Amino acid sequence: MAEASVYELAVIGAGPAGLSAAVAAAERGLTVALVDAGAQTGGQYWRHPDERHLDAFARPESSGHHHWAHYRDLRARLARAVEQGRLVHLPGRQVWRIDRDDTLLTLRTTPTSGADAADAAAAPERVVRAERLVLATGAYDRQLPLPGWTTPGVMAAGGVQALLKANQVTAGRRAVVAGTGPFLLSVAAGLADAGVEVVAVCDANALSRWAATPLRAIQEPGKLREGVGYAATFVRHRIPLRTRTVVASVAGTGRVSHVTLAKVDARGRIRPGSERTIEADLVALGWGFTPQLELAIGLGARTRVDVDSSLVAVADADQRSSVPGVYLAGEATGIGGAVQSCAEGELAALTAAVDAGRSDDPRARSRLRRRIARGRRFAVGMHRASPVPADWTTWLAAGTTVCRCEEVDAGAVRATVHDLAADDPRDVRVTARPGMGLCQGRVCGFALSCLVAAETGRTAEPIDLEPLAKRPLAAPLTVADLALLADGKD
Amino acid sequence: MTAPPPDGAREFSFDGRAIAFREGQTIGAALTAAGVTSWRTTRITGEPRGLFCGIGVCYDCILTVDGRRAQRACVTPALDGQIVRSDDPAEALPLTGEVDG
Predict the structure, then answer these.
(1) In this complex, which of B28, B58, B75 lies closest to A443 when CB atoms are compared?
(2) How far, in Å, CA of A125 to CA of A195, rounded?
(3) With contacts defined as CB-CB under 8 Å, which chain A residues touch B65?
(4) Which secondary-structure segment (H or E) carries A285?
């Protein structure tokens, strides 16, 4: 591929969706740039030990993984496309801004760790130009604040799993895994298999909610087998699964030492007198996932609130966003899991190829559309079975931290609504500063919108949620990066 | 998972203490394996913080790596001989060398 060329397609994200999209597009003959924050492909779902140092790890890279054979196939096809000069893989780079004109998308990137060399202006990977773009930016654990959740040893469930899968490190010895949804089972089983004593898995919802899921949705390939696998692990390690149970608070000096569990009613209100305190040094929390949308929103793509209350980007039946030339795949369009993401990535690539004037494969596209519709039915069932409890904000004490970066507590947020008449999350944000720190509201944005809604009695709409995910700079960057932009040196 | 690295000891320095790691691990993972769970205090209340999201989203785990501030421990690879320092918000920025992040 020529230097400083314009790619026919850029793909952001090398998880299941982005990797599938990049490989499929290259195989359809498009020139592709695959930009990814990760040091190697796989995303969060297929996160695995450093491929250059596999012999340094005790267990194989496939440990704890599902659909690993499919990942290996995609990885091999990616390597082939790179060899043949049809695809450029740019790992370890975060896209912090995208500019778009009639014919061209310009992606500006910064290294995930460390910094570009002093002559950064000369580094070709800093700026990627493409005619079309697939956003496969994935998602991260959705969090709800609770008293004591800033104590070291409290982690996002996905982070605990990342330590296990990529580093083969256990984050503690006695773990409580809590929140809602089937992902908790995966994390608990991974911890138990690695020798951690899992003292409780707490789901705020009752398992009976799954009974409302249509049978056809549960027949989603692989899901049942995964579920049976976790059940066997739970029995083998005697892991207690406690439903309608939440972590009410966490205590410890400098490190988690005690965790108080409590039973909740259907709306998530703690049943007085049901509290029970146990010893643990690790708490893994997850309440579903939040799609990573800042780039989509920055481009002006239309959004909606999904069944799971997350803001997602709107894709049509062929994965086109509302912005011409920009396609969406994977969790950004609604949380649906890896198999779903792969199908969406492939379809996005086929659609982009057709839009770029390549020959169509209508049968492949309709097969993928059916596949995606089936996956979506399962996802909707899962979301309905595992909602964020309606009254979760009743767990918060006045002094409970909501925004971890700026250290804004629930009392300050409530006071802003009541005393200063801030009546939407954006108002609260600019007044009390929650969501204004380094993470830019990625962690507290959802919780903040719930808390404001609980105080004002008005449910959060896309117009309330978008500002929380709107970030002029999609990643923190150095002043030097900005200076280069101002100098026009790229 | 407790077997020592087969290909010889790799170490970085964390506030003067030697931390062993396996090649390919992140700084955050190596610190966790060594039993270190916090390496930063917050600006307002001085609370200890360490890994939270673990995947590069929350920026809670930032520390100083070879003089470069605000690096995320969860996504920064551990390297032999690295000088890693916990982050103290009250400390003045260095007057010489690169200041960014």
Answers:
(1) B58
(2) 42
(3) 114
(4) strand A282-287
> A166, B26: Cβ pair inside 8 Å?
yes
Domain extent at residue B67: 12-85
Provide the residue type at A25 as one letter: A
Residue ranges of A 194-223 with Cβ closer than 8 A to chain B: 194-195
Kindly give the confidence (pLDDT) of every residue in chain B, 101 residues in length, as a single tens digit, with 9 standing for 90 and above. Answer: 444 445 557 999 999 999 999 999 999 999 999 999 999 999 899 999 999 999 999 999 999 999 999 999 999 999 999 999 997 655 655 554 444 44
* A483: in domain: no
B46: in domain? yes
| CA A454 vs CA A247, A411, A460: distances in Å | 20, 13, 10
Nearest CA in chain A to B50: A152
Is B91 a member of any domain?
A: no
Last residue of a domain, one of A251, A267, A287: A287
Whose CA is closest to A448, among A465, A473, A472? A465
pTM: 0.93
Within this chain, do residues A270 and A208 fall inside the same structural domain, yes or no?
yes
Query: Does B7 contact A50 at a Cβ distance shorter than 8 Å?
Result: no
Judging contacts by C-beta atoms under 8 Å, the chain B residues touching residue A478 are 100-101
Is A479 among the domain residues? no
> Residue B12: beta bridge partners?
B19
CATH number at residue B53: 3.10.20.440
Tell me the H-state helices in A173-299: 183-193, 215-218, 223-237, 294-298
CA distance A370 to chain B (A): 32
Q: ipTM score here?
A: 0.93
* Beta-carbon separation of B51 and A155 below 8 A: yes
Contact predicate A233/A314, CB 8 Å: no
